[in-house]
Structure formats: C-alpha cells, structure tokens
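Why run this: before we spend reagent on co-expression, it is cheaper to look at a predicted model of the complex and decide which construct boundaries make sense. The entries below are exactly what would go into the expression plan.
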Amino acid sequence: MDTAATPRSNYLTDGYGLKSWLLTRDHKRIGLLYLVSVSAFFVLGAVFAGLIRLELMTPAGDLVESDVYNKIFTMHGVIMVFFFLIPAIPAVLGNFLVPLMIGAKDLAFPRLNLLSWYVYTLGGIFTLWALVNGGVDTGWTFYTPYSSAFSNSHVALVVVGIFINGFSSILTGLNFIVTIHKLRAPGMTWFRLPLFIWAHYATALIMVLGTPVVAITLVMVAAERLLHLGIFDPKLGGDPVLFQHLFWFYSHPAVYIMILPAMGVMSELVAAFSRKRIFGYEVVAMSSLAIAVVGFLVWGHHMFVSSQSVYAATAFSLLSFVVAIPSAIKVFNWSATLYKGSISFDSPMVYVFGFIGLFLIGGLTGLFLAALAVDVHVHDTYFVVAHFHYIMVGGTIMMYLGGLHYWWPKIFGKLYHEGLARVSAVVIFIGFNLTFFPQFIVGYLGMPRRYHAYPPEFQLWNILSSAGAVILAVGYAMPTFYLLYSLVKGKPAPANPWGARGLEWDTPSPPPTQNFESTPAVSEPYNYAK
Amino acid sequence: MAGAHATQHPKLQHHFDNLDQQFEASALGMWLFLVTEILFFGGLFAAYTIYRLMYPRAFAEASHELDVVLGGVNTAVLIGSSLTMAMAVWAAQLGKRGKQLLFLGLTMALGLVFLGIKAVEYSHKFEHGLVPGPDFRFESAHDPGHSQLFFSLYFVMTGLHAVHMIVGIGLMAVLFVMAFKGRFTRAYHTPVEVSGLYWHFVDIVWIFLFPLLYLIDRHGPVVH
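The model came back. Tokens follow.
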C-alpha cells in the first residue's frame, strides 16, 4: 500500500460516464466538480482583473469608457468574491478532506452536498447571463440607493444569482457542522481533530449564521427593483445606510469564510513540513472560533465615513483591533512550530512561507484601517484595495494552492514536478508583491479606487502594479500546466508521500469510494515525535 | 457495500452506523437550518424595528388598515395546525398509519385555509390601494410616505412567510404519500419529525409577525 497505486478500485475508477459524475453523492467527486467550476470562475475573474490592470497602465481613461470600467471591476469583484474565494477552499479541499480527516465515509448529507454544487452552478448561470446581457455596474457591494433606484444595469439578475449561490454556502456549512458533530470515527475526540477541521467548523458557523442575512438583504434590493416596494428608498424615508449595515453584517465575516480555511490548511502544512506537533494546538483551535465570533462584531469598520455615530465607530474600531489578536496568535504559533522543527522546503512549504509574509502585511495594514483617523484618510483608496488583496489573494489563494499541492497526490494519486512547483510558488510571491505593494503607496498618496483615469503622477506605481500582474499571471498559469500534466504522465503517488500524519494519509491514494478499507485507528493529532 | 448492510434497516444510509446516529444527524441538520431561517427573517425584523422606531406614527396608522379579525383567525388556524402536526409526529412515532394520514391531511388543510385567508387579505390591500408603488394611495394618512415603508415590510414579511407555508404544505404532501405507502414505523420516522420542526418554526414566525404587524397601538387612539 505504501509503494504504488493500488490495483484496487478507487473513487476515480468507480464509474466512468458523465452520469457517474453529475449524479454522484461521493464527497470526493463533488469536491472535484467544485474544483472544475471554481477554477473556471477564477480564470474569468482573472480576465477582468487583467482588463483593470491594462486600463490603468495610462493615466487617461483610454481603453474603455468609465461605464464599461465600472462593469469590469464589478464583475471582477462579484466573481472572485462569491464564486471563487468563498467556495474555493471549503468546497474543494474541505469537501474532499473533512470526512477523510475525521474517519467518516461521507458528509452527513450527501444529496444536499450534490445539491449545493447545482445551486452554485445555477447562481453562476444567472450571473453569467447578466454578464453577457451587459453586466452590472454597482460594485460588488451593491450599495443602495444606486443599486435599488438608479443603476440601469442588470442588478436584479446578479442579485438573484448571488442569492441562489448563497444557499450552496449555507448547505456546505450545515453539512460540515453536522458531519463534524455526528460522524467522527471512534476515538476522534474534539481535541484530536486536525486544525483544518477546527478551521472548517468555525468557517461553517459563519456560513450558516451570516449568509442568510445577506440573502434577505439582496431579497429586499430585488423587491425594491422588481416589485417597486420601498425599503431602502430615501424618498419614502427609507435608510440606504441600513443596507450597508445588513450587507457588511455578512460581508465582513465573509472575509473570515475566505481566510479561516486558509489558516486551517496552513496549520496542516506547517506541522507536516516541520515534523512537529503544532505549537499550542488548543489555542490555535480556539482562535479559529474566536475569529468566527468576534468577526461578527466588526462590520461597522466598513462604515466609518457612512454617517455612523462616533460612539459606534469607536466601538467597531476597538473590536476590529480585538479580532486581530486571534489571527496574531495563529501566526505566532505557526512560527513557534517552526522553531527547532525538522523543516523541509517541499513546494507546499514554499507556499507556507509566502503566506506568512503576505498575511502579515495584509493583517497589519488591516490595523491601519481599523484606526479611525487613518481610515478616514485612506478610505476608498488603493490602500484599502491593496490591504484586502493581501488577505484574500495573498492569504487565501496562497493556501488554496499550497493545499492543492499538498493533497494533490492524495486526490489524484499522481506526483507532479516538484521543481516547477517550487519555482511557481516563488514566481507567485514575487508577482503578487509587485502587483499589490505599489497599490499601498499610490493609495496612501491619494489615488481613489474604482476610477478608470488618474493624475499622471500615479502612473509609475500603476505600471509597476500592471507589470506585477503579468508575473502573477505566469505564476498562476504554471500550476495549471504541470498539475494537469501530472494527471497524464505523473508518477503514481504512494499513500503518504510527505510522511505526514493524519487519517487522510492512512488510506490509499486515491482513496477508495468508501474512504477507508476498515475503520481507521485514531491517535493524537500531529504525532510526529517518533 | 450493499452486502455489508444487507441485514440492516433499508432506510439506513451507508455512511451511518445505525438509525439513531442517522436520526440525530438529520435533526441537528434541521435545527441548524432553522437557525439560518431565524437570521434570514432577522434581517427583516431588524429593518422593521429601525423603521418603526423612526416613524412610530406612520406605522401605527398603517397598521390600523390591517384586518385584525382575519389575522386573528389565521393565528388560530396556524396554532391549530401546529397541534395536528404534533399529533402527526406522535402517530409516526407509534407507526399508526391511519392517524398519520389523518393528521398530515388536517395539517395540510389548515395550511391551505391560512393561505386562502391571506389571499383574501392581499386582495383587499390591492383594492384599497395599499400596495406600495405608483398606485399607492393612502391619502387619509398623516404620513403617507412613511406608511409605504410599513406596507413594503408587510408584504415582504408575510409574503416570505407564505412562501414558507407553501413549501411546508409541499412537504406535507410528500409525507402524506410516504405515510400512505406505510413508510413510517416505530424504527424509522425521521422525515415526519424534521418536517414537524420546520412546520412549528413557520408557525412561530407568524406568532411574531401577527402582533408586530396587526396589533400596533390598538389599545387607544394615538393618531386620529
């Protein structure tokens, strides 16, 4: 079992037709369905990002009209946030790994799991339909009253698309929580759960508690546009700022839906490539829950300049500093895990170091923005854009790719070209910093976001950023090729190519449909001592 | 895999160890779903609270246009349906097929009565020009603009509640067919139990909607 792909059937060979995939209830196959869809949306979102960077090469708005530019950055945001970043790690890696890591045969509700993928696809179809019909120009935040009363673009279609898509998130979260509560293998106590599971549990809580609020908010916007009801309409005495409160009540915690699973991947990788039990396991586990809870209390920091009272703003500012504490605890504990560890620089570990650097910059600039006075200065500038890209792209995508590389041999039973993988991780790190670090500077100098033209003195920084985007694109393209190539020509992967601990490595690569040949024996997590 | 479980209950799915575990998972799943529903309706209740605090007079005036008698009857109908639902769950736990059919049928019927009365109320609102939009004409009010906010919330909240009722009646219909085929026994009655949770939840939403929408300042003349 340790040497080569076993001749026994696995989940990939258990049925070959299209129907065996589209009607599957196997969490591993559904994870792969998500992998394909999520990757497609990533490419589409990246095309829009490319158009933005192309337009911003010159100070004059010469590539597209401002109206078209509004639609480009809106579609970039909508696709990347709702159709890539939120589902990426939970729906692909989480779907595949949650049952494997806790020694279960499947998620608690396999049919709901398949339904969630169809719901995601349906929401995507609505959004793409709006796109080919002319797009939407409100920004991904859909602020009223522009979205509800004035915009002449396809707001209702996109809003309905995101409403539908939200249910895929709710179903995934619900499935994870029930699975982690009810389907753990004998001996898998709560404090033996891998930190990937703790992170996904915390994520699932946010999905379940937050997503319904944005869903009803979008229903209200749709009701206002389609049924001429008035809820946020200032003409009737409605309050457009109420929309912002409801929107950010979900959409700020949504940032933690993106980053918590990345932190879960991070914990697995740091332990595996340091050959050590993670430092302060319990604290890291609890910090995930702390982020999930406190994350619900900070939404007002998006609204420091939206007529919020000084007292509310002060409270939100303080709470935003508080939420940085559990994140910082994690970073310290990962670093402490490295100490005297037996560190190897396999490709997933290269992503780990990239993540630490980028998340540190993204997190610390988040503190700048949580500080009231600084935020008033840099609000709606490229400083904010740079900050959240450091978290979402530098944090989430680094770990999505790191996790994909780490578990690729498990998922497909094939080994990829390790040298190319390390090079691509470095290229992505360099390209990312070149793309987004200049945006901190140009934002601090006063360049506002969401404009297609800007004063000429900002051009140098924008050219650097666009150049970085090209390098970043190369970095993202490389794994696409060598990972797909590995499926055809890659060497067969052993059950545990990294010598890692965890139940997912105790079963063949790729795993059998039932996940385990027999009920696995559970021991302490990260048992690297011997 | 089928062989391993050949001797076990046909309703036991392959990834559960036993029916108890399967039932607990389903029940927890439904409770979690109801939590999401609370937050879903919660957005509307938040909007209602804020606007009523901002415009108490407009809300009281507009609320007086609602029909307390029809609303009251509907409240009684729904509470009655919760009773029949509870009886249906009891019948399922005991595996009594005849009583399952009776109580599921009654629950469905009461649900339909509720929707019928709701439809009558809606049509009155259309006749009296109380539907927000270009045709809104509640000119007798002191504060007609803000009363549109009330009626917007009234239609979204009761409309979403009605959608939940329709889903519930659909669930009851499925359960009815399953009960007719004798699917529910002492050992296996999970669908009835979890659908019951859902039905009670939809009732409870109405228990909040009724006073908040129909019974504002009914104790005395506040505005006229």
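Chain B has six helices and no strands. The two ends of chain B are 73 Å apart (CA to CA). Bring this page to Monday's planning discussion.
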